[in-house]
Amino acid sequence: MTRICLIGAGPSGMSMLYHLAKMEEQGKCIPDVVCYEKQSNCGGLWNFDWRTGVDEHGEPIHGSMYRHLWTNLAKECFELPDYTFDHHFGKSIPSFTTREVTLDYLSGRWKTVNATKFVRLNTIVKNVVYNPDEDNFTVWARDQVEDKDLPSEQFSHIVVATGHFSVPNMPYFKGVETFPGRVLHSHDFRDAREFKGKELLVIGSSFSAEDISLQCVKFGAKSIVCSSRSGPMGFKWPEEIKEKPLLERIEGQTVFFKDGTFTEVDAIIYCTGYKHTFSFLPDNLRLQTENTLYPPNLYKGIVWIKTGNNKLMYIGMQNQYYTMTMFDVQSFWACRVILGEKTLPERDIMETDMSRWIQKLERVTSIPDGIDFQTEYVMDLCGDSGYQHNLDVKDIFQDLNRKRKESIITYKDNVFKSKFTGTVSCKHHKPFMSVFDDSYDAIVN
């Protein structure tokens, strides 16, 4: 009997539940589905939690969201084709939105088919084992509210949709233990106002480094030094932000860089990425990878081929340019496979397909290359699954990337046209660097 265990009710997991509920609504017979979600709400990373460290149940805080966060992508890059922003809000809104507005949009789609009916909130999966003799999985979970272990359950399929932005990667730098100020990872960053008047060191060169640096300047930080091993980010920064090569060592409040320069700072913020960590899975089922556009041992970036008889799947484990739409087509593809509407090829064909993508990935050397690569991947899934919409928005991505390079300060003031409605977003009433209210009303109304 087909029975699905879905782990995680964030954007990836809820896309899976949306498609299953939609299929049920269309009269299809869907299998029994149980979605385990350790938080008290659906939405995953898009839920704001003021806490850091552990929650009331002693579990690590999942979320990395902070106050005043705006999306790094224009909404036209992640708009869902069958549930547009215009449809949800009943009008045009700015291209760049905030956390609260984005979550409101995503949850609106789930509500159209009551996708949350499959979710068991406050329930954490502790262990998963594959049983080769029975060709199924045993899952052990814990009810965190009742503080008790639940009876084990059997499933034919496991779908892991926990995301990979909740376990910080914190490299060691010599002397960090001598630093007298605040040291934190971006995972624990909650409010830029904490650093008003401070001199900061930000380590890293990806989206979180650029966004947190700008947020801190916006809310009054005195100065910021950005340090990374990959070289300058190449933006025209405001005068408060300077770039340095990789941090070499720390002596008290003084930080030394590889070029021999040094400065004093009040706080250090690590924007050094996250680890793929699936503590509930044994080694033979666990994806072990760096953050990459095509993780190893996943056919179509989804099916785990090492063990589990192709019945263990991962959704949303790639490094991402495409986000919600990629999760959506991955989920649709997975649903069709599990329901028997699509048959997987022989193992040698799957391995050849994976090798082909890995070879393509080796030729990716820039952000534009990465956008092209992921566009091709998403469109391949669309064709292979019979997904009814064209998700190719690489022109918007490339235009957005150019605008970021032209002005990191003003690129969020730009507007873009929806691929699915043809609507050009309205402009926000103030420039991004002058907006200090990130509430729903401030953005939508």
From TrEMBL:
It comes from the Eukaryota. Its cofactor is FAD. Keywords: FAD, Flavoprotein, Monooxygenase, NADP, Oxidoreductase. Its EC number is 1.-.-.-. InterPro entries: FAD/NAD-bd_sf (IPR036188), Flavin_mOase (IPR000960), Flavin_mOase-like (IPR020946), FMO-like (IPR050346). Pfam families: FMO-like. The keyword Transmembrane helix does not apply. GO terms for molecular function: flavin adenine dinucleotide binding; N,N-dimethylaniline monooxygenase activity; NADP binding. Belongs to the FMO family. This is Flavin-containing monooxygenase. It comes from Potamilus streckersoni.
